Amino acid sequence: MPKISVQITYPIEHPERHSIETDMKEDKVVDLLSEWLRDQTGKGADYREANDADVYHITISMELANDSFSTKSDTGNDGLTVGIVADVLKRLKV
Length: 94
Hints:
Layout: E1 3-11, E2 19-22, H1 29-40, E3 55-63, E4 68-73, H2 78-93
Antiparallel strand pairs: 1-2, 1-3, 3-4
Helix pairs in contact: 1-2
């Protein structure tokens, strides 16, 4: 199935140095991340302890056939993943 993805590298001490790699048009990254954040709403709290790292890596993919998301992250906690993506999105909109 065709899919599109966004890979975020996020240095926690210097979030302004985040980087994004994608296989989609760059002007559509904001839309994809916004939709992913809306999709996370209501999923409930994640009480797992977050991994302690200097740099986190998040990959968000969307299956084009059914508009479903999959997420891979080394944060260890969904709340931290959402927070990082929200921060990246805010920085992209500036």
